[in-house]
TrEMBL record:
It comes from Podila minutissima. The keyword Protease applies. Belongs to the peptidase M1 family. It comes from the Eukaryota. Residues 66-283 form the Peptidase M1 membrane alanine aminopeptidase domain. This is Aminopeptidase. GO terms for cellular component: cytoplasm; extracellular space; membrane. Residues 360-683 form the ERAP1-like C-terminal domain. One of its GO terms (molecular function) is metalloaminopeptidase activity. It holds the Pfam family Peptidase_M1. The record marks Y224 as: Transition state stabilizer. Keywords: Aminopeptidase, Hydrolase, Metal-binding, Metalloprotease, Protease, Zinc.
Length: 705
């Protein structure tokens, strides 16, 4: 062991870990043996100080400094809000180079992938700081939700993962209030949960588990993201203070025991005096989420709830559920007397709310309610005009959430791609990172799905390039040393969108900087090409170049000691590679000893975004399926990932048939849910292209693109 700090060095083999045997509440246990360095600190605000250490391989320990700095603050914060101390006197965290899971909350010794724990202020992209902060907070939350109190059975997995996701976000927002953490939650966790739950192949949050093969398949966006989203909705409904008081009651009663979802509801009910189970049962025990169809007539707004499916074809049998929906109407209608504005029936009418200036009204203020809102065209126009005018009554979460809803409704056919693009044009003055991150995502999704038509693809690219032009020139390429975090993130997403859309000045500068970067020594490279802009520049260079640029990125991958940089290279090569020879080379490389098996998905994710190579990637996957089965069986859903990701942007009926035919005679127990979700996604996108392809072409042509 080598301790970092002090004048001496101490070497020995060591064992870390703790085993506590509570028969009714077993703990996750880990031991680590090897040559590691560590840095350490101690909590300062707890009755019993906790020693905190971060362990790494030799030479990497300073990259654990950020994680170490936030660890005691998170422990102190959780001790305060949970009303229960962390029961051990030490908390060790270790970066493991070869680790299938992102992280694991072993009691007293949390294990992480290297990229989930280590962050280098000089060489890591800006988003990596958020990833480390959130992952550390999530895993420390499990020391209470998971270890101190453990779920009774896998049916209640979401009690661990959904809660840790929510409270981990709460902790990051507490530590970094200027990061717009909850707005970011709205475009990430919230959207992932709603997206998966809009499929027939989804499952309830509380899902019966009768077969071991089913366990790893529910470590998904329902247990984590929808789980966290409904907890956020409930905490907002009860108020966060009352909710956390109920959490303290729950933890005190069930310490070192197993618990169920109903145990949590009972504690919250006792604390709040409100029947929480009545409110929450449909959200956790029933598949799906609602869409609120909004109509206006004679001065009244009517909202009517139905099950939302991305296929827009829910049968009467599938549309029986009446959710309790916190409407969050702003301005507040005087006719709704319930302080929580809870819709408990199929539909409700109220007077058209008016802002002081006579403009728009909004449903789902702050986007804490877990539902989609389908406004009439007139309401969308009013909201769009308010966005264009920079109305202070529409915050970042509202602007992002509105766009996400309309994108989802366009995909399903509840709305149309023309209405979505009309709305996007109102965002031309937008300056918030979170909103631009979502805009980039949705524009790229349209580009990917409708790329079956070359002319449409080129026109979408032109539309994106024009939309992004002002922001490209305003932000430029340089990342000032003391720049605030969100501005750095914004510049990164603007450059990414510009490069991908073929923005002429951006492509030219990316190629110039790439050449300088590859010719420079390591000490100068970060000055030439900031880590946050590096992936985009690598993609542009490879896609606009050829073998030479591909070889340069490959060499950079092999020479860099940073795993986050290696992951970036794999994604960039996958996203930009052209030609059968290079496609074959990247697959050969990805299965070689140079690439950790856990990192193969990075390359696959890149290829899924590559319209020039994704079909070849799917063909390669079929030809090498036996190798992947041998490599990944039992590895936390990796086989399902290998199926879903390569086809996740395709809209081809031929690929859907190929999926059916290829897996018809194969054992699919390990990835049955993922396979069905892949098929359903292909059907949804295929219908979208058939329904809106001509309309999209007409809209773009009519706008002069």
């Amino acid at each position: 062991m080598r301790k970092n700090g002090g004048s001496g060095q101490e070497w020995r083999m060591f064992t870390l870990g703790i085993f506590v045997d509570f028969p009714s509440c077993p703990k996750l246990v880990a031991f680590a043996v090897g040559d590691f360095e560590y840095i350490e600190t101690t909590t300062t605000e707890l009755e019993t100080p906790i020693n905190c250490r971060v362990y790494t391989l030799p030479g990497l320990v300073e990259q654990g400094r950020f994680a170490l700095e936030i660890t005691p603050k998170i422990l102190e914060y959780f001790t305060k809000i949970f009303g229960a101390p962390y029961p051990l006197t030490k908390l060790d965290q270790i970066a493991v180079p070869d680790f299938d899971a992102g992280a694991m909350e072993n009691w007293g010794l949390i294990t992480y992938r290297t990229v989930a724990l280590l962050y280098d202020e000089k060489t890591s992209a800006a988003q990596m700081k958020e990833q480390v902060a959130y992952t550390v907070a999530h895993e420390i939350a499990h020391q209470w939700f998971g270890n101190l109190v453990t779920m009774e059975w896998w049916d209640h997995l979401w009690l661990n993962e959904g809660f840790a996701t929510w409270v981990g976000t709460l902790a990051v927002d507490y530590l970094f209030p200027d990061w717009d953490t909850w707005a970011n939650f709205t475009i990430n966790e919230y959207q992932q949960g709603l997206g998966l739950d809009s499929l027939r192949s989804s499952h309830p949050i509380e899902v019966p588990v009768a077969d071991p093969h089913e366990i790893h398949q529910i470590f998904d966006a329902i247990s984590y993201s929808k789980g966290a989203s409904v907890i956020r909705m409930l905490s907002n409904w009860l108020t966060v203070d009352v909710f956390l008081a109920g959490i303290r009651r729950y933890l005190k009663k069930h310490t070192y025991q197993n618990a169920t979802t109903n145990d949590l509801w009972d504690a919250l009910t006792e604390e709040s005096g409100v029947n929480v189970r009545e409110f929450m049962d449909t959200w956790t025990r029933v598949i799906g989420v609602p869409v609120l169809n909004v109509t206006e007539e004679d001065g009244l707004v009517t909202v009517e709830q139905h099950r939302f499916l991305s296929t827009n074809d829910a049968t009467p049998e599938e549309d029986q559920t009446i959710w309790w929906v916190p409407l969050g109407v702003s301005p507040r209608p005087t006719s709704i007397v319930d302080p929580n504005q809870t819709l408990k029936t199929r539909k409700l009418s109220f007077e058209v709310p008016q802002q002081k200036d006579g403009g728009f009204y909004l449903i789902n203020k702050n986007f804490t309610g877990v539902f989609r809102t389908n406004y009439p065209a007139s309401a969308i126009r009013q909201l769009g005009q308010a966005i264009l005018a920079g109305s202070p009554d529409l915050g970042v979460a509202e602007r992002a959430g509105l766009l996400a809803d309309q994108a989802s409704l366009a995909t399903s056919g509840h709305s149309s791609v023309e209405r979505l693009l009309d709305l996007i044009q109102y965002y031309k003055n937008e300056k918030a990172f979170v909103v631009w991150d979502l805009l980039d995502n949705k524009l790229n999704n349209i580009t990917q799905v409708f790329s079956v038509n070359d002319r449409t693809y080129e026109r979408i690219q032109h539309f994106q390039s024009k939309l992004i032009d002002r922001m490209v020139h305003e932000l430029g390429w340089d990342f000032p040393k003391d720049e605030d975090h969100l501005t750095s993130r914004l510049r990164g997403v603007i450059l990414s969108c510009a490069g991908r859309s073929g923005h002429e000045a951006t492509v030219k500068e990316a190629k110039r900087r790439f050449a300088l970067f590859m010719a420079a020594d390591a000490a100068e490279q970060d000055k030439i090409l900031h880590p946050t802009a590096r992936k985009m520049a690598f993609e542009v260079a490879i896609s606009q170049g050829g073998v030479a640029e591909f070889d340069q990125v490959m060499a950079y991958y092999q020479n860099t000691p940073k795993q986050d940089q290696q992951s970036m290279c794999l994604m960039a090569m996958g996203a930009a590679v052209r030609g059968q020879e290079l496609i074959q080379r990247i697959f050969d490389f990805a299965l070689s000893e140079h690439v950790r098996s856990q990192d193969f998905p990075y390359m696959l994710a890149g290829l899924s975004m590559n319209i020039k190579a994704r079909h070849e990637a799917w063909g390669w996957l079929k030809n090498n399926w036996d190798t992947l089965v041998s490599r990944y069986t039992g590895n936390m859903g990796m086989l399902g990932f290998c199926i879903k990701i390569p086809v996740s942007k395709m809209a081809d009926a031929a690929v859907l048939k190929d999926l059916d035919d290829f897996f018809a005679e194969k054992d699919t127990k390990e990835f049955e849910r993922d396979l069905e979700q892949a098929k359903e996604g292909l059907r949804i996108r295929g219908k979208w292209v058939a329904r809106d392809g001509a309309a999209l072409e007409s809209w773009l042509a009519g706008q002069g693109y």
